[in-house]
């Protein structure tokens, strides 16, 4: 039986489309010219502890799957629904709609942009290998979304790059902007190569009138058992005619935040990772207090904690991120905004709501 299960596992890894594809030899040859790539792997800008290998991760699985009721809401968290017609108005101000975790619809300068649109139920290569989304529904389903001008991805982990979501989105999307190597996954899934734009750290590009800059983060990549670091990871600067936004992707705290702030700040609004952390891997996922410090570093007028409120991917309680980051942000007088999933976040609007919607109603 063990042999059969092992064979099934191997076949699943090599045959399931969920795993995507590794960069080909031609791409790898180009990567080898970079100072942050060697021995077949991309590297962080500063030394980063990556001791959490596959063996250690497997040993930790019982703790991860432990039935801890604090790791998910014990009530239906409020979700604001979005009408598809509302998204097609000609007079929409620059705004974001949050899907939970790190997924957003950004409407800016007449463009519809999806950021890390993981809109599936389980952030894993198979539903049996992960935990379901907290909420039973999204603010709006993929099929109801308008035509998408561009999608940007921060890295290729399952809670950010989702095969099922890409399958539903690619027929209504004009272009994709991704880190180096991530285009190989999209091509394997049927996206036309000519609409995929792979980018390196600090690379700038005009994307349909918007300025995009792919900036560093302190993290890693990989979707399979042996392709960790095969593709690049990072964060994004998105600049329109008036507004300047920052999206952190995933990563640990480091000096790159100040450098990004000095080069491209200040930012009108920043979306910063705050969730799925642990002291054992704090170098690749910020602690909540560091998230508030990062907002200061990048010179954010207002920041929003992301990477929480949708999935349980660590051992902390589901509200621990927001509770801790609020305390730190207030102590350093860094403006913070914590909207409900689905609410319209108008960049030049009132971002001072203090409603603690994550607290169970009496």
TrEMBL record:
<dbReference type="GO" id="GO:0008270">
    <property type="term" value="F:zinc ion binding"/>
</dbReference>
<dbReference type="Pfam" id="PF12706">
    <property type="entry name" value="Lactamase_B_2"/>
</dbReference>
<dbReference type="GO" id="GO:0005737">
    <property type="term" value="C:cytoplasm"/>
</dbReference>
<feature type="domain" description="Metallo-beta-lactamase">
    <location>
        <begin position="112"/>
        <end position="308"/>
    </location>
</feature>
<dbReference type="GO" id="GO:0070290">
    <property type="term" value="F:N-acylphosphatidylethanolamine-specific phospholipase D activity"/>
</dbReference>
<protein>
    <submittedName>
        <fullName>Multidrug resistance protein RomA</fullName>
    </submittedName>
</protein>
<dbReference type="InterPro" id="IPR024884">
    <property type="entry name" value="NAPE-PLD"/>
</dbReference>
<dbReference type="InterPro" id="IPR001279">
    <property type="entry name" value="Metallo-B-lactamas"/>
</dbReference>
<dbReference type="InterPro" id="IPR036866">
    <property type="entry name" value="RibonucZ/Hydroxyglut_hydro"/>
</dbReference>
């Amino acid at each position: 039986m063990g042999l059969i299960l092992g064979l099934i596992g191997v076949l699943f890894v090599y045959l399931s489309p969920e795993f995507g594809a590794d960069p080909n030899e031609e791409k790898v040859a180009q990567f080898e010219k970079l100072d942050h790539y060697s021995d077949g792997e991309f590297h962080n800008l500063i030394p980063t502890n990556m001791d959490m290998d596959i063996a250690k991760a497997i040993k930790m699985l019982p703790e991860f799957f432990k039935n801890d009721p604090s790791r998910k809401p014990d009530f239906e968290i409020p979700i604001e629904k979005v009408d598809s017609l509302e998204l097609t108005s000609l007079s929409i101000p620059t705004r974001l709609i949050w899907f939970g975790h790190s997924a957003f619809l950004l409407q800016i300068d007449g463009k519809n942009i999806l950021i890390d649109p993981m809109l599936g139920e389980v952030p894993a290569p198979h539903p049996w290998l992960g935990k379901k989304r907290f909420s039973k529904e999204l603010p709006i389903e993929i099929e109801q979304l308008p035509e998408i001008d561009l999608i940007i991805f921060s890295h290729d982990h399952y809670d950010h790059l989702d095969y099922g979501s890409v399958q539903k989105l690619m027929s209504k999307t004009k272009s994709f902007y991704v880190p180096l190597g991530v285009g190989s996954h999209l091509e394997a899934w049927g996206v036309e190569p000519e609409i995929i734009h792979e980018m390196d750290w600090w690379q700038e590009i005009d994307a349909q009138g918007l300025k995009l800059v792919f900036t560093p983060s302190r993290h890693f990549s990989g979707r399979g058992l042996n392709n960790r670091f095969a593709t690049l990871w990072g964060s994004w600067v998105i600049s329109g005619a008036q507004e300047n936004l920052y999206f952190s992707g995933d990563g640990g705290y480091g000096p790159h935040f100040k450098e990004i702030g000095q080069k491209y700040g200040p930012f009108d609004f920043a979306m910063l990772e705050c969730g799925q952390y642990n002291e054992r891997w704090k170098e690749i996922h910020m602690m909540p207090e560091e998230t508030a410090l990062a907002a200061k570093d990048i010179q954010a007028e207002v920041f929003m904690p992301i990477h929480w409120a949708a999935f349980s991917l660590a051992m902390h309680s589901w509200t621990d991120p927001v509770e801790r980051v609020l305390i730190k942000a207030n102590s350093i007088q860094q403006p913070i905004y914590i909207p409900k999933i689905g609410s319209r976040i108008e960049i030049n609007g009132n971002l001072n709501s203090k409603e603690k919607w994550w607290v169970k109603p009496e």
